[in-house]
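It is worth pausing here to work through a concrete case rather than discussing structure prediction in the abstract. The textbook approach is simple: state the sequence, then state the predicted structure, then interpret. We follow exactly that order.
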Amino acid sequence: MESLKPHQIAFTLSGTERPLVGEWIKVVKDFFATTAAQVADPLVFFSQNSFTNASASNPWAVQVSAPTTPDNRSGGTTNFLSELEPASGLSLVEILESTTVHCTVQLIAVLGHHIEAVRLGALQLLLQLATIFDKKVVDSKKKMDRITLSLQTDDKGYHVPVHEFFHYIGPALSNMTIALVACLEMFYTCPDWTVRGICITALGRIVYENEKIFVEEDHHIL
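Step two, the predicted structure:
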């Protein structure tokens, strides 16, 4: 990604979602600094050329400071946003939203990682984000148990559980669907076939679950 352009990552977090997402980003940062610190070398090279929020030494360590305690009186965003690094042409809220997209895409990319703890950690973090957007996501524990077990035991690239997972949470991500697809498309040329395959699987299911959004977008462009 050459730069953080609003038209590429455009989506809107509500005032109540911002502090929750801010806390979620902090957990994602910790995850990539610890559990998922040892990603495959091809990912390192590829992500350095794709995500401007990536660190040169560890591109999966999201460059966002840990948020402070949310200020409920101001919608819970002021303290967290003040700690985000400035970006030319973007407001602090836009930076928060673009960072959310980047974190989500980075998590998707490691759903096929060879280390089980990385796969399962990414799965849980994506589920947490979906739950922020739609509380009903937590209603089907049996479904998530099946997906989790499949992600532990699948020996064919983990495409089946990833496909089922985004069938489950795809609708909850509808608000950021276009932004996710715009970023996931860049992984079509990723040199790591496991990452490329997982991202294509997730992208396809996200598009399918939110088909109406893309139809409306096409009509808007026309």
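Step three, interpretation. The chain has one domain: 6-221. Residues 1-8, 40-45, 50-84, 218-222 have pLDDT under 50 and may be disordered.
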